[in-house]
Amino acid sequence: MAPEIYIINGPNLNLLGKRQPHIYGHETLADVEVECVRVAGEHGLRVRFLQSNAEFEIINWIHEAREAAAGIVINPAAFTHTSVAILDALNTFDHPIIEVHISNVHKREAFRHHSYVSAIASGVIAGFGTQGYVFAVQRLAFLIKAQQA
Ligand code: DQA
Fold this sequence. Notes:
The chain is α/β, with parallel strands linked by helices. The protein is built from 5 helices and 5 strands, in the order E-H-H-E-H-E-H-E-E-H.
């Protein structure tokens, strides 16, 4: 069976397309999922695409990914800047992790400049809009292939 990647989205990203479109754009999370599934498919990967407003649910999905996933793309949203618990969960995951932010967090408020998740991420993508997810999937596919070689 084709390897699976988890794409995990944090709080308020269910409102993508409606939420501050001048910052996050007009595409919905469903649009992002379609693109990610398409691009992952081109690389022979399956996708489990997830979103939650609850920290515990994100942690539980990371635990599930330990057994099920070859890599993780994660946009932890506001939990990026607050959650040691999500960092601890990611620290138990043995495969590549790519952190994505739709907006350029470094151009925004100072509290968005620090990410707990960056301490474990193989790479960080910020400020490329929802296209960042596609780049993340492509990079993950490259890293997964490199691991298998
Ligand atoms: C975000 C940036 C975070 O600072 C913010 O809390 C979000 C979305 C982004 O994708 O740009 O909810 O992760």
